[in-house]
Specification:
With 107 residues, the chain is mainly beta. It contains one helix and nine strands, in the order αβββββββββ. The chain has one helix at residues 2-14; strands spanning 26-31, 34-35, 40-46, 51-56, 63-65, 69-70, 74-78, 85-93, 102-106. The strands form two sheets. It has a five-stranded mixed beta sheet, with no helix packed on it. It has a four-stranded antiparallel beta sheet with strand order 1-3-7-6, with no helix packed on it.
């Protein structure tokens, strides 16, 4: 009985350390999927509320854009000046966590 109590107590003490914040943001869609530079696009997903940057392209030639509207499940960003073609897009939270990649086409 004493062992069970000790394990339960440890679990309860460690539980606050398992925070939702440790999970990176996740992008599940971009609309529209094709747009010109200067166009506002909508990214949907989860845990987007603390996103500070949207990254277009691959390292070392990544172009960043600051979201214009941010909520937990969606954000808006203006497509930066990029050459036409398909480019990966991801988001970065204030603490540096990055999302999965989505393909976007600059027209």
């Amino acid at each position: 009985m004493n062992r069970l109590f000790t394990r339960c107590l440890l679990f309860l003490l460690l539980l606050p350390g398992c925070r939702r914040d440790a999970i990176p943001p996740g992008v599940s869609g971009i609309a529209p999927r094709h747009a010109s530079a200067g166009t506002s696009i909508l990214l949907t997903g989860e845990r987007l509320g603390d996103v500070t940057l949207v990254l277009f392209g691959q390292k070392p030639s990544v172009v960043t854009a600051v979201p214009t509207e941010v909520a937990d499940r969606q954000l808006r960003v203006v497509v930066p000046n990029l050459p036409p073609g398909t480019t990966p897009v991801r988001v970065r939270a204030a603490d540096g966590r990055e999302s999965n990649l989505w393909q976007f086409t600059v027209q």
